[in-house]
């Protein structure tokens, strides 16, 4: 695995606002689909690898693998959300992206 960075602002920019969804799983897929290109049949595969977990925050981890890049296999996304209030859904708080490297790591970078 390569380095991890906070890409919350990037997600909000791509979606045009801070996203919310009825479930953590739905929010996770909403975020992942905003970050990976839709290339039809060759599109990256997105799958839940951990969670959802509900505590002080909602949390879910997804992998998006199959990017068209020879050094980066994909991303691991850890998504945190504020818990729903009366009628609202889970609202995005933070997105952390970790690169999944296909050929190894030098420092924090995929090679």
Description:
This protein is 18% helix and 45% strand. It is α+β, with helices and mostly antiparallel strands. The strands form two sheets. Strands 1, 2, 3, 4, 5 and 6 form a six-stranded antiparallel sheet that branches. The chain has a two-stranded antiparallel sheet with strand order 7-8. Strand 5 (72-82) and strand 6 (90-101) form a beta hairpin. The longest helix is centred in the first third of the chain and has 12 residues, at 24-35. It is elongated.
Short summary:
The protein has helices spanning 8-15, 24-35, and strands spanning 4-6, 20-21, 45-54, 58-65, 72-82, 90-101, 105-106, 109-110.
Span of the ends, CA to CA: 11 Å
- Looking at the structure, what is the overall shape? elongated
Spell out the helices and strands N to C: EHEHEEEEEE
Number of strand elements: 8
Number of helices in the DSSP assignment: 2
Largest sheet: 6 strands, antiparallel
Helix content: 10-25%
Strand content range: over 45%
Rg, please?
A: 14 Å
* Mean pLDDT reading: 84
Low-confidence stretches: none
Structural class: alpha+beta
Which helices and strands, and how do they pair?
Elements: E1 4-6, H1 8-15, E2 20-21, H2 24-35, E3 45-54, E4 58-65, E5 72-82, E6 90-101, E7 105-106, E8 109-110
Antiparallel strand pairs: 1-6, 2-6, 3-4, 4-5, 5-6, 7-8
